[in-house]
Design a protein that fits this description.
5-stranded mixed sheet; binds FE2/S2 (inorganic) cluster; about 15% helix; about 25% strand; 3 helices
Length: about 120
């Protein structure tokens, strides 16, 4: 079982799903299914509306970015020098909720709903 905790100012909700319920699904899909108010638009990695910070638990964060995610994060200045520059403090990383495919990791997803300013 993996835990996803969604946080924003004045908001916190923890979702626990079995591996089969999480595997292969995006953060955005899980958020929408549970009424988490993450902004989104294109759902294809093209607009940046769904940018979030992802902080890992003890099993780490999936570092694989889709082509669209890497391109857009770089264009937004959130991924200037490779993956390590994406780490705010070694644990938190900018990601696009519509591109982050959830595995078994425990994560905290900080969404501020500020386009480009997560
Ligand atoms: S909804 Fe457009 S990049 Fe995620």
């Amino acid at each position: 079982m993996g835990t996803t905790r969604f946080v924003a100012p004045g908001f916190s909700e923890t979702i626990r799903l079995q591996a089969a319920q999480r595997q292969g699904r995006t953060l955005l899909a899980i958020a929408l299914e549970h009424g988490i108010p993450i902004l989104f638009n294109c759902e294809a990695g093209g607009c940046g509306a769904c940018i979030v910070h992802v902080e890992s638990g003890d099993r780490g964060v999936d570092l694989e970015l889709t082509f669209e995610e890497e391109f857009l994060l770089r264009a937004m200045g959130k991924l200037e020098d490779g993956l390590e520059a994406n780490a705010v403090d070694g644990q938190r990383r900018f990601r696009l909720a519509c591109q982050y495919v959830v595995g078994n990791e425990d994560i905290i997803v900080d969404f501020t709903n500020e386009l480009g300013g997560a």
